[in-house]
Amino acid sequence: MPGTLVIGASQAGVQIAATLRELGDEEPITLIGEEPHRPYQRPPLSKKWLKSELVPGDVILRTREWYDGQRIDLVSGDRVVTIRRDADGTGLAMTQGGRQLAFDRLALATGSSVRRLTIPGTDFHGVHYLRDADDAYALEAALHDPANRRVVVIGGGFIGLEIASVARSVDKEVTVLEASPRLVGRVVSEQTSAFYLAAHRRRGTRVVLDARLQRIVGGAADAAGRRSRVVGVELADGVLIPADLVVIGIGVLPRTELAIQLGLEVAGGIVVDAHARASDGRTVAAGDCTVMPNPYTLGVPGLTRIESVNNALEQGKVAASTLLGRPATYASVPWFWSDQADLKLQIAGLSAGYDHVVVRGRPEDERFCVLYYRGGRLISADCVNQPAEFLAVRGALAKGHTIPPDRAADMSTPLKLSVTEPVAA
């Protein structure tokens, strides 16, 4: 029997396979990923990995013995390039390496790829992106090379700021170039953005907002004709920012090519319902490649794409249940984190559509929370170096509870003691 094919050896893909076995599925399972490595965790790549605080085994999700014991056929280093599904639901996937993978059930966990910068000079030696383990190996070596004194990070989102923090920790001169008027502007409030701008500048990072890039500048090619090495980034006004190393971190794009081949609905990601089902009613999808109607948007219309480990795990569990004909409903509070130097940001919930914020604590003390409200109801919070308050908010949201704004502002009472009864839907 062909069994289940899971395309994408990601956190979501591994979770789908693991949950199938946990739920008693005895059919064959094939998990295929295009990287040559066993499936691993991505978040540490921009944090402890770049600091040389980890070895490869620290980020591996499961051992080879686990896959063997679970009878999961892990195929690494090959990519599905064409796929078809027949009217009876069965199908066939063809890989770049010539494999033919037949399946009865199909799960897509294809993840995302880095958004590429479209200015001249991105192919110079010394220009890096960070998405996978090979990128992390190369960037780690470059950051610890004494010859690379000046680092320019293009992009002031979480990845860019994490890389900038690591670069400062190894005593590099760091400049962050952000095209928007504030840092992490798509995700956090003006108050949280302003805090991170001030915090990074205090730690010695130069930050340029509203940065308009003209090109990345390289020196002359060497005598052997090898590509030029980067020497700086030129802005639209002609200013040249010197650089020995440039790191581009301007976001990611969901990988939807196979979904499009299958005729599935795609709208900024593979569209799935609350049961992780794609538009054909048969295929499931999970992780960064998907968009869905998340219950924690609390009435804000539209689909949501969530790039987080928690989402990959929870949606992966739901997808596996749906494949077995026991559709569960996605109901996990979204949460995220970012480590930047000694600052740990933890976010609970989704702040889209907020109309009021409460700043709890003093940002200048580098221990505070920003709580987001809509119509007087708590919908999200950014917590900096406040893990207990993050857990209080996450727990309240999971139960449909709230924390009244006046209580949230009262620093004399812990947030967990300010949670009220469930609010009306």
Distance between the termini: 46 Å
Mean model confidence by pLDDT:
94
Low-confidence region ranges: none
Which sheet architecture does the biggest sheet show?
5 strands, parallel
Total E-strand runs = 25
What topology, given as strand order, has the largest sheet? 3-2-1-7-19
User: How large is the share of residues in beta strands?
Assistant: 25-35%
Radius of gyration: 23 Å
What class, by secondary structure content? Answer: alpha/beta
Basic shape: globular
Number of helices: 9
Please estimate the helix content: 10-25%
Describe the model.
This protein has 425 residues and is α/β, with parallel strands linked by helices. It has helices at residues 11-22, 64-69, 133-143, 158-169, 190-202, 257-261, 309-323, 387-398, 405-408, and strands at 4-7, 29-33, 72-76, 80-85, 91-95, 100-103, 105-108, 112-114, 127-129, 150-154, 173-177, 206-208, 213-218, 230-235, 240-242, 245-248, 252-254, 270-271, 284-285, 290-291, 335-340, 343-349, 356-362, 367-374, 377-384. The chain is globular and about 60 Å long. The relative contact order is 0.12. The mean pLDDT is 94.
List keywords for this structure.
425 residues; alpha/beta; 5-stranded parallel sheet; 9 helices; 21% helix
